[in-house]
Write a structure and sequence with these properties.
The protein is mainly alpha-helical and 509 residues long. The protein is 68% helix and 4% strand. A two-stranded antiparallel sheet has the order 1-2. A two-stranded antiparallel ribbon has the order 3-4.
Amino acid sequence: MANNLFAKKPLSLLLEEMKGENRLRRVLGPVTLTSLGVGAIVGTGIFVLTGVAAHDKAGPGLILSFVAAGIACIFAALCYAEFASMAPVAGSAYTYAYATLGELFAWIIGWDLVLEYAVGSSTVAHGWSAHFQDLLNSFGIHIPYAFANAPFDYNLDTGQFFATGAYFDVPAIVITAIITAILVYGIRESAGFNAGMVIVKLAIVLFVIVVGAFYVDPANWQPFAPYGYTGISFFGYTLFGQTGAGGAPIGVLAGAAIIFFAYIGFDSVSTHAEEAKNPSRDVPIGIIASLIICTVLYIAVSAILTGMVPYDKININAPVADAFAQKGLPWARRLIDVGAITGITSVLLVMMLSQPRVLLAMARDGMVPTSFFGAVHEKFRTPWKSTMLTGFFVALMAAFLPLRILAELTNIGTLLAFTIVCAAVLIMRRTNPKAERPFRAPWVPFVPIMGILSCLLLMFSLPVENWWRLFIWLGLGFLIYFGYGRRHSVMAKMRATEAANLQAGEGVK
């Protein structure tokens, strides 16, 4: 049994699967892939999570939070790029784990990625709704409160949940339904739609940086790190730094753990390796270029935001637009809301584009029902059934769960995925040293080891509730794996057939 659990999927088999008919269409080049990465990264991080992290966790020290998270991402991105060039198939970290760590670890990371993209998409849909409503409010149009918010939220001061009086978030449901329809229609159309939105939101981000610089008051940067520079805990016990409401760590590193969600766009680039024209070259370019571009923009916008408005007066739902409103610039507020809506839409599109491709890879391996999750539309060549299911669950969570809960739950899943990919590079370099690597991560083992350590550091900077939610999610995943996945695994069936043939051959002798 142990051998079956940790059996690895040969790299040759991964490459052979790409030759079948039930595969995705190769239409994405390096510019489009970079655009997809920027589309996933620039949006929620700048327009939504900056407010939560600055107000609750880091203050002006949010600038360093983005630097810390960016450094951790650089290490992970280099490891992702190496694997994406070696195995340019759908599945991202799930596929890499299967080839290096074995079936059980592959299931863990695949199930983890489902959590990452589903909850992450819900977070983004929630942020889209907040900015859409802010734009309508600026014109005097108001959506009834009962249909504009989640039914409950979390009070940081008391550490308790409370009822908001609302029923569910209708705008979040509507945008999720629209994006789902676009994604079912086709990858080329989805990528083109995303590229247009990326151009618009980058123009708005540059506007925020240039115009906002004239309204920066350096006094707002003092104190620079009101909650300290650390914020590290271990299962609820603070090791370094201060604690906030409910015993959660606060500080620069705690802020980095919260806004780490904003960087997962480069991870989504690797899920589209099977749709890249020249994956061994284009995917590494898309991963690294999108990460560099967005890290610079994040640092600049966080400096502008915390310089314009005192950190404790930042609006956590629409922080950038509200900062300009506080400076008496309502026209700029509307412009930023339009940019935020556009930017967050592209983030939602890329994240909802990514999850069905992870499920497709798992279905090909028999880990989840192939007839449903492995179904590729005959005309559109998209995993249409799993895309529609993804849209349903994203809309459900976005409508009923508050922003703070969604953001933190996504981060711990993302950090676990990055940790496993960095470890997998170390293992592959040792077990398959002669495998073709069109892109090689530099300074191995330093880069993957630092990636592992930095991601674990940020994981420990998250509140303990996130660890329990992760354990519950993984526990549910184990039930599915041992109840279905292990018995239907393609690799397990292959091993059983080989064993039967071997036994039959010995009987003939």
